[in-house]
């Protein structure tokens, strides 16, 4: 094959493809294991509402038709639930796709985009794909350093990504700090507030991005059906913002961003509040269990407001990752965020949590 790199758009050769949590099927294939527990991608192991499954089945007869590109029914249902106008919402193929739309709509060559380090890596890759410059600001005590981020805002700044709760640390920015930050933003800067884990937050001092939307503020809140609604495999996320900002994002929207099955499932999932309550109860039980077990095993952890826990083993976490993998438990080692002794572990079902602890304890005892 000839060298095709000369054909690439400027800048993309330094990008690396996104590294997802290791898929269950890959571990089964590679290690010949049948029973694999994945706690590496912050999915909801409880799965979706049974109503969503029924809606998926009912939709199958129509999959030869293109979906509604505007997701009208779902958009109206989300708008009603959030108490905003439907023109303030755009849905897409996961929040990942929303982040791409934000990049495509707003980032010019040379624009600076401020984000935490570490945070959700898609912000940086989208920035670089668009020819922007990512400006990382290190977390302080595992939390966004909003003062540090405000200091980095300059004439070239176009966008700030704020992940609240932050992935991978699970920490939140509280109301007063966010309000202070917003008060300092000028008209030329957009704040993309990623609230993918919004529904898991129990802390009272957590700011709800939707309630902060104002006509004079360039604020875009991001939410997803991948987490609490358990529909990660169908890919549905959305942005909420002033209709004018949404209008700009829709100019770069794919023709049919959300497939029919996903739209039907999300609509049914949204209506099943009992399921969300069940998931939350399981989540709280799992979190309390894992906190207790980590304390017993003397594993440090960052208290979380999301469905994952950032732990510090104080030893090479790759070694622990590989040892757990052999036992059929997948976690996310911290090397990808430059935290070589840390790992991010999704809170699973109680069976999954127990299995994790049993395998982890076995490893720690052997060492
Ligand atoms: C902070 C954050 N934003 C966005 C996403 C992507 O969500 P989606 O599955 O809707 O693309 C994730 C997924 O893990 C995430 O952690």
CATH superfamily caption of the largest domain: Type I PLP-dependent aspartate aminotransferase-like (Major domain)
| Tally of separate domains | 2
Low-confidence stretches: none
Instruction: Count every helix, treating DSSP H or I runs of 4 or more residues as helices.
Output: 12
Q: Which radius of gyration do the C-alpha atoms yield?
A: 21 Å
Number of strands: 13
What fraction strand?
15-25%
Could you spell the SSE succession in H and E letters? HEHHEHEHEHEHEEEHHHEEHEEEH
Q: Which sheet architecture does the biggest sheet show? A: 7 strands, mixed
CATH class of the largest domain: Alpha Beta
Bound molecules: pyridoxal-5'-phosphate
Mean pLDDT: 96
**CATH structural architecture of the largest domain:** 3-Layer(aba) Sandwich
Helix content: 25-40%
Would you give an account of this structure?
By secondary structure, this protein is an alpha/beta fold. The protein folds into two domains: 5-47 and 274-366, Aspartate Aminotransferase, domain 1, CATH 3.90.1150; 51-272, 3-Layer(aba) Sandwich (Aspartate Aminotransferase, domain 2), CATH 3.40.640.10. Helix content is 38%, strand content 16%. The protein contains twelve helices and 13 strands. The protein has helices spanning 24-31, 50-59, 72-82, 94-106, 122-129, 146-152, 175-183, 243-251, 260-271, 273-296, 317-326, 350-366; strands at 37-38, 89-92, 112-117, 133-138, 157-163, 190-194, 219-224, 237-241, 300-302, 308-312, 329-330, 332-333, 342-346. The strands form three sheets. A seven-stranded mixed beta sheet has the order 2-8-7-6-5-3-4. The protein has a four-stranded antiparallel beta sheet with strand order 9-10-13-12, with helices on one face. The protein has a two-stranded parallel ribbon with strand order 1-11. β9 and β10 (308-312) form a beta hairpin. α2 (50-59) packs antiparallel against α9 (260-271) and α4 runs parallel beside α5 (122-129). The mean pLDDT is 96. Pyridoxal-5'-phosphate (PLP) binds at residues 42, 94-96, 120, 163, 167, 194, 196, 224, 226, 232, 237.
């Amino acid at each position: 094959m000839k060298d095709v790199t000369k054909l690439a758009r400027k800048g993309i050769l330094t990008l690396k493809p996104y590294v997802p949590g290791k898929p269950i099927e890959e571990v089964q294939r590679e290690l010949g294991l049948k029973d694999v527990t994945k706690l590496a991608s912050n999915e909801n192991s409880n799965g979706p509402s049974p109503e969503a499954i029924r809606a998926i089945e009912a939709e199958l007869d129509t999959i030869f038709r293109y979906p509604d590109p505007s997701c009208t029914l779902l958009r109206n249902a989300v708008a009603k639930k959030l108490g905003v106008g439907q023109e303030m919402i755009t849905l897409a193929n996961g929040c990942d796709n929303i982040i791409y739309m934000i990049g495509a709509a707003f980032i010019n060559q040379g624009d600076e985009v401020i984000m935490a380090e570490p945070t959700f890596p898609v912000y940086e890759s989208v920035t670089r794909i668009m020819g922007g410059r990512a400006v990382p600001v290190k977390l302080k005590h595992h939390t966004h350093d909003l003062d540090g981020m405000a200091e980095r805002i300059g004439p070239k700044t176009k966008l700030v990504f704020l992940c609240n709760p932050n992935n991978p640390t699970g920490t939140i920015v509280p109301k007063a700090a966010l309000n202070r930050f917003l008060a300092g933003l000028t008209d030329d800067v957009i704040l993309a507030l990623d609230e993918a884990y919004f529904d898991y937050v129990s802390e009272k001092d957590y700011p709800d991005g939707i309630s902060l939307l104002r006509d004079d503020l360039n604020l875009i809140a991001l939410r997803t059906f991948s987490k609490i609604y358990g529909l990660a495999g169908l890919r549905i996320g959305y942005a909420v913002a002033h209709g004018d900002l949404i209008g700009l994002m829709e100019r770069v929207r794919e023709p049919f961003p959300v497939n029919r099955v996903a739209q039907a499932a999300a609509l049914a999932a949204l209506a099943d509040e009992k399921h969300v309550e069940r998931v939350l109860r399981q989540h709280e039980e799992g979190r309390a269990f894992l906190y207790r077990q980590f304390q017993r095993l003397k594993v440090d952890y960052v208290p979380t407001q999301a469905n994952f826990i950032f732990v510090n083993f104080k030893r090479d976490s790759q070694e622990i990752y590989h040892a757990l993998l052999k036992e059929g438990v997948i976690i996310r080692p911290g090397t990808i965020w430059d935290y070589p002794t840390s790992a991010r572990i999704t809170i699973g079902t109680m069976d999954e949590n127990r299995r994790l602890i049993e395998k982890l304890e076995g490893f720690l005892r052997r060492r």
